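Re-run requested by the PI after the first attempt was lost when the workstation crashed. Everything re-entered from the original request form. Ligand of interest: iron/sulfur cluster.
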Amino acid sequence: MQGYRSEIMDGSEALVVRPHHLLCTVCLRGGCDSPPPGRERIQRILDQVWRNRELPIVLDCPLYPVHYQDIKSEEYFQKVKRELHNRKKDLDVLRRLGLVPGSRRPAWYIYGLILDRIPTVDGICIYETATSPEWEGCPHARSGYYEKAREKGVGFFVPSRSKEEMRKAKEDSVRSIYRDERLFIRPHHLMCITCFYGRGGSAPLEEDNLYEVLRRIQEDPDTPITLIEGCCMICPPCPSYNPDTDLCDNVCGLVRDYKKDLDVLQKLGLAPGATMKAKDLFRLLFERIQTSMEICGYGDGVVTSHEWAICGNVKAGYYEKGREKGIFPKER
Ligand code: SF4
Ligand code: SF4
């Protein structure tokens, strides 16, 4: 049985794991010293993830799809029996995560999802009653190892940014915002600035630079803004911003925000690199995009998966309020 391997996929290393082995990594971190797949094997997963929070994890599990007419001997049934509970565990984990065999996600994402969606291994690794030897379950399942490690949060599995580092990032990026000749902003953040303004935001936030960009452009509406895709001058102090990769390690940073950026560019008839005075850019934005539903709710408001969740501020209507008030009141 193949339970753990590293592979080079799309030019980068990916870790291929059985979904239920990830639960065992949580137990191991909680103090279990003999997880059934083997301590070393499980520790290797933890080590790789700790070294690289962006490590792509590919969830792999055998499904044995054999047609009954192709079963040549009773050995087949012996083989599937050995792996019976483990295969059910894999599928239980996948179901909770809303993923499928072959799903590939970064380590930070997978661990966040596991801890969020699987509060206990009871019911996955062990059942109320062992109905037969195949379904006996793991001796560690009721030890509390899993639950204890889970309580420590995702930073116990993948390294997170320190408060000090984020504070320093805030200081440096705010200095740039007030000093630099032009600002670099991702297109959908123009809308987030409007939401911030629309909900009455009037003080700096620790975790982003919305206030500072708003203040700079209100003080100088001629400030040039260059549109870029991906993280921008608003992101550096955010706990989800990864300064090593410049990626957003948050579910919204996987695909959703990239689409929102392109949707805004399409509506504005612009491309990355376009540079305009702040007042002209916001005038164009407010002309072409009336509601946040058009962009942040994808137009139809349908959530097709966790990755395509819709920002809570769509319902609150903050963009509409900010647009109505106008970022530059004197200009309207
Ligand atoms: S309880 Fe489950 S997750 Fe924990 S060691 Fe046993 S099999 Fe692994
Ligand atoms: S609805 Fe959310 S993502 Fe969309 S512009 Fe407002 S704050 Fe930003």
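Saved to the shared folder this time. The radius of gyration is 24 Å.
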